[in-house]
Amino acid sequence: MYSKILLPVDGSVLSHDSANAGLELARQLQASVVTAFIAPTYQYPVYSEFIPPVSQTDEEYQAAMTAMAETYFQPVKEAANSLGIIVQTETRFSDSTAKEIVHIAQRHGCDLIFMGSHGRSGLGNFLLGSVTTKVLSICQIPVLVHRIKHG
Questions:
Q1: Is the pTM higher than 0.90?
Q2: Which of 36, 80, 95, 140 could form a disulfide with 85 if both were Cys (CB 3.0 to 4.6 A apart)?
Q3: Superfamily for 4-31+56-83+95-146?
Q4: What digits encode the pLDDT tens for the residues 33-75?
Q5: Sequence ranges of the domains in the chain
């Protein structure tokens, strides 16, 4: 049915729970997994007359975000390994998270995107998150939206 599943992660509890559910689906389907983190692009500090000497550089920002992504990927990699699932990781920088999720899925030949209904920018238990909604509206690849059961 599906042979390669994209699991976007953002460090939220929901994305962690969704990644675990996605891994279980991948195990049942004997599919491989790509997990991705999309960081916002670096924003240069804007000051009227100067840039302070302690300002973070683009390279420092990218290194910090890449290290953060690895902390998000580690539990997914460990769980995938314990389930015998092949997993690839990818960190990208973009201010258009939904478009980047779709591009990553296309580049890796994913035939399913498995993601949570809301993450950091969650709008409540009954609404889909803005990133998930955008992915659903622009993507030709099937998207399975994972909903956490509350109480």
A1: no
A2: 80
A3: HUPs (3.40.50.620)
A4: 999 999 999 887 666 566 566 677 889 999 999 999 999 999 9
A5: 4-31+56-83+95-146
